[in-house]
């Protein structure tokens, strides 16, 4: 992935979190995330920040958005999804 497409992906992420991303852009973002570990890490961090902010203002919208985004990520990031916790 070249750096300029990562820059664009990060703009899309903030638009996505704001609920302001077109279907075409969302598809492009998901395609980029499927091939870019660093952008997946960035999005994960954004989601954590978003949830922390939501808890501060008592909003439940971001939790629903996070669930939706995580579902989308799970479908494009099977490596993370298959990681299991080891326990008794
Ligand atoms: Zn990227």
SSE order and pairing:
Elements: H1 3-17, H2 23-34, H3 37-57, H4 61-76, H5 78-81
Descriptive account of the structure:
With 88 residues, the protein is an all-alpha fold. The chain has one domain (3-77). The chain contains five helices and no strands. Helix 1 (3-17) crosses helix 2, helix 1 (3-17) runs parallel beside helix 3 and helix 3 packs antiparallel against helix 4 (61-76). Bound molecules: zinc ion. Zinc ion binds at residues 1, 6, 9, 32, 36, 38-39.
Give the mean pLDDT. 77
List the helices and strands in order.
Answer: HHHHH
Helix amount: over 70%
Number of domains: 1
Q: Helix count, per DSSP?
A: 5
| Straight-line N-to-C gap | 40 Å
Structural class, from secondary structure content?
Answer: mainly alpha
- The whole-angstrom Rg is 14 Å
Describe the structure using short key phrases:
88 residues, mainly alpha, binds zinc ion
Summarize the structure.
The chain is an all-alpha fold. The chain is built from 5 helices and no strands.
């Amino acid at each position: 992935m070249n750096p300029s497409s990562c820059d664009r992906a990060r703009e899309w992420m903030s638009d996505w979190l704001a609920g302001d991303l077109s279907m075409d852009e969302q598809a492009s973002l998901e395609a980029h995330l499927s091939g870019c570990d660093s952008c997946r890490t960035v999005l994960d961090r954004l989601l954590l920040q978003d949830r922390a902010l939501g808890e501060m203002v008592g909003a439940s919208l971001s939790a629903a958005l996070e669930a939706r985004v995580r579902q989308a990520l799970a479908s494009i990031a099977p490596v993370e999804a298959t990681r299991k916790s080891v326990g008794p």
